[in-house]
Every structure is written in structure tokens, then in C-alpha cells.
């Protein structure tokens, strides 16, 4: 089986050479197709090694984004049906899937480690909105693009942070609790943050945004919880299928948004990528060191770094769509989403190779005894 992945990586290498040739010869339509297949091959090839497996999903998204940039009309409408109408239903399915994996145990850390949960939530809803507002001021984005940066900074953490916490030897239970509680708080906190930091950029309907978040997240999660309670252990296929459905749904959402905002991306895509990278790294840095100041243990600091640095880009995209501004406000979530998966995978891989300091000390004490 391992040899198959090596062959696929070989195909990716050939596609890389061909892609470069068509780019430098100015044959951009062919270049776009080949680049799409290059990302697809690299995505599947990377799944064959545990070090690179974490990048597979981000590369899959890059393939979709490349297709959307090359043939945007394919992902804007189909037979008169506007594809952006799929964004909210897809998010609701993803949130339902999140609910099916949850139970009251996910709130256990609130009781066990209330201080860590409180610090994590405060960091989550202060650091990223402030960083986002600072960056849009420094880079002087157009109002609706700037509002998108603030929107994703004001969103709760996403499910990807839980995966990175697991890989990065962080506190997985704390990660799941923070993601859950932050998502439940989002209908109240996110609109207020948007009104505060983005209200001068675009009109913000506070109550309308609250209802949108409840509709996109809370109601489907509640449905998932009820489903889990009634059918726990009876529908294993749901548990196996939902992660794949979630990944496919997020990839499709980002592809649709990219197609809708293609013209804006062509003019400011590079700057958005730079801002996204700064925004993301600041989240990890301030999230981690903010917790060190409060003397939390190493695992908790790693966890909160992921929770702060990795927002729910899907929810931000859905809110942009609900506002009718998916091609402008939705651009930052579409750009930041794949980037967070890449940087998160890199950081998780680094921490995976380096056990937490307190764990090393515990191991050393055990050996001495």
C-alpha cells in the first residue's frame, strides 16, 4: 500500500514540472487544470506518511480553489441554481455531525479546570478580534474585505483545533470543551464583537447575526445531541461518515466562495494571504504566551494556542453569505481557512516531536524513583 503513495507522489512531481512549463509559456487555462491535479495528487500522496498526512486536507482545498479561480462559472451557478445557496445547509450538516459526537462529558473540563477554560475563552474572544482590527487598519483594506478579516477573528474556534491538539500532545479534553463552549457563546459574543470592531466598516444587524449563528450552529448541534442520545451505538456509519462529509462540505464551501470572489482575489489575494498568515501566527503566539503568563501547564498552553489561532472559517463564511456579501466579506474566511490547517499542522507536528516540559519532568522523576 505504501508503494501506491510513492507512485502518486511521483505523478505529483511530473505534474509540477508540466505545470511550471505551461505557466511560463503563458498557457494559463491548461496551467490551472494541471495545478489542480498536482494538488490532488500531492494530497493523496501525503496521506501515505504520518508526518505529511496533516497537510492532505489543506491541499485538497487548494485543488478546489485552483479550479474555482480557473473556471469560476462552474462554481457560481448550475442550471440557474446559485450554488452559494448550499453554504448554509452544508454548514448545518457539519454542525449536526459535531453534535452527534458530543455529550455532557465534553463539558467536564469546565468543572475540572474552570480557570483554564475561562482564560482560554477570554483569549479566544479578545486576541483575534484585536489583531484583526489592527491589521485591517495597517493594510487599509476596502471596508467589506476588512470586515471579513474582523469577522473570522470574532468567530469561535473550529473542529480542526481539536485534531491539532491531539497531534500536538496538548490537552484534548480542554480543546473539545473550549470549542464547544465558544461555539455556544458565539451567537451572543460574535455579533457584539462585529458591531464593536466592524460596525464602522459595514452595517451590522446585531439581532439578525445572532439568529444566523443560532440557525447555523446551535440548532443543528442540538439536533445532533438528541440524535446521539436516542441512537448512541446504533448508527456507527454516521460516526464514520460525518468526518468525511465535514471535510468535503468545508472544501466545497471554500471553493464556492473563491469562485464568487475571484475578481477581488486577483487584485488583493497576495495581500490577504500575508495578512492571514500574520493573523494566524499572532493567534498561536499570543494564545500560548498569554497562558504562560497565567502559569497554566504546558499542555493547556498548547491547547489554547490552537483554540485562539484556528477559527471556524466555515461559520464566518456562512455569516458572510447570510449578509449577502459572500464575494467580499467571505473572502478572508476562504483564504484564512486553508492557511490555518497548514500552519496548525506544522505547529502540531513540531509539538508532537517535543513532549510537554511538565511531562518530561514527570518522566524523569519516575525514572529516578
What would your notes on this structure say?
This protein has 369 residues and is an all-alpha fold. Helix content is 78%, strand content 1%. It contains 16 helices and two strands. The chain has helices at 2-24, 28-46, 56-70, 87-100, 108-112, 114-139, 143-153, 160-167, 172-198, 206-231, 236-260, 262-293, 298-309, 313-322, 331-353, 357-368; strands spanning 77-78, 81-82. A two-stranded antiparallel sheet has the order 1-2. Strand 1 (77-78) and strand 2 (81-82) form a beta hairpin. The longest helix is centred in the C-terminal third of the chain and has 32 residues, at 262-293. It is globular and about 60 Å long. The N and C termini lie far apart (44 Å). Residues 360-369 have low confidence and may be disordered.
Query: Strand order of the main beta sheet, please?
Result: 1-2
Q: What are the segments in which pLDDT stays under 50 over at least 5 consecutive residues?
A: 360-369
β-sheet strand percentage: under 5%
Helix fraction? over 70%
**Biggest sheet overview:** 2 strands, antiparallel
Q: Report the average pLDDT across residues.
A: 86
Radius of gyration: 21 Å
SSE string, helix = H, strand = E?
HHHEEHHHHHHHHHHHHH
Which structural class do the helices and strands define?
Answer: mainly alpha
Question: How large is the count of helical segments?
Answer: 16
The total of beta strands comes to 2
Q: Span from first to last CA? A: 44 Å
Q: Which descriptor suits the 3D outline? A: globular
Amino acid at each position: 500500500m505504501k508503494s501506491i503513495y510513492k507512485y502518486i507522489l511521483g505523478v505529483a512531481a511530473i505534474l509540477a514540472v508540466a505545470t511550471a512549463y505551461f505557466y511560463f509559456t503563458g498557457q494559463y487555462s491548461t496551467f490551472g487544470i494541471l495545478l489542480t491535479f498536482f494538488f490532488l495528487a500531492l494530497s493523496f500522496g501525503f496521506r501515505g506518511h504520518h508526518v505529511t498526512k496533516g497537510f492532505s486536507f489543506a491541499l485538497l482545498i487548494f485543488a478546489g480553489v485552483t479550479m474555482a479561480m480557473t473556471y469560476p462559472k462552474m462554481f457560481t451557478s448550475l442550471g440557474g441554481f446559485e450554488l452559494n445557496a448550499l453554504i448554509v445547509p452544508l454548514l448545518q450538516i457539519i454542525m449536526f455531525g459535531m453534535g452527534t459526537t458530543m455529550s455532557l462529558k465534553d463539558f467536564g473540563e469546565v468543572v475540572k479546570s474552570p480557570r483554564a477554560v475561562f482564560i482560554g475563552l477570554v483569549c479566544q474572544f479578545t486576541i483575534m478580534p484585536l489583531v484583526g482590527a489592527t491589521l485591517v487598519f495597517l493594510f487599509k483594506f476596502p471596508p467589506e474585505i476588512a470586515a471579513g478579516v474582523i469577522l473570522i477573528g470574532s468567530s469561535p474556534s473550529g473542529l480542526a483545533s481539536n485534531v491539532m491538539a491531539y497531534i500536538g500532545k496538548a490537552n484534548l479534553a480542554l480543546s473539545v470543551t473550549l470549542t464547544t463552549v465558544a461555539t455556544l457563546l458565539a451567537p451572543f459574543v460574535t455579533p457584539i464583537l462585529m458591531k464593536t470592531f466592524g460596525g464602522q466598516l459595514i452595517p451590522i444587524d446585531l439581532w439578525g447575526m445572532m439568529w444566523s449563528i443560532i440557525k447555523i450552529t446551535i440548532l443543528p448541534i442540538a439536533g445532533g445531541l438528541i440524535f446521539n442520545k436516542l441512537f448512541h451505538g446504533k448508527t456507527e456509519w454516521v460516526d464514520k461518515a460525518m468526518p468525511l462529509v465535514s471535510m468535503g462540505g468545508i472544501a466545497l464551501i471554500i471553493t464556492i466562495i473563491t469562485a464568487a470572489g475571484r475578481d477581488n482575489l486577483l487584485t488583493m489575494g497576495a495581500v490577504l494571504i500575508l495578512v492571514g498568515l500574520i493573523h494566524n501566527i499572532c493567534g498561536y503566539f499570543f494564545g500560548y504566551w498569554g497562558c504562560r503568563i497565567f502559569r497554566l501547564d504546558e499542555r493547556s498552553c498548547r491547547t489554547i494556542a490552537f483554540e485562539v489561532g484556528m477559527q471556524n472559517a466555515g461559520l464566518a463564511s456562512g455569516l458572510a453569505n447570510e449578509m449577502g456579501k459572500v464575494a467580499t466579506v467571505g473572502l478572508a474566511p476562504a483564504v484564512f481557512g486553508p492557511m490555518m490547517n497548514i500552519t496548525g499542522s506544522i505547529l502540531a507536528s513540531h509539538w508532537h516531536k517535543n513532549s510537554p516540559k511538565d511531562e518530561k519532568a514527570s518522566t524523569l522523576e519516575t525514572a529516578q524513583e
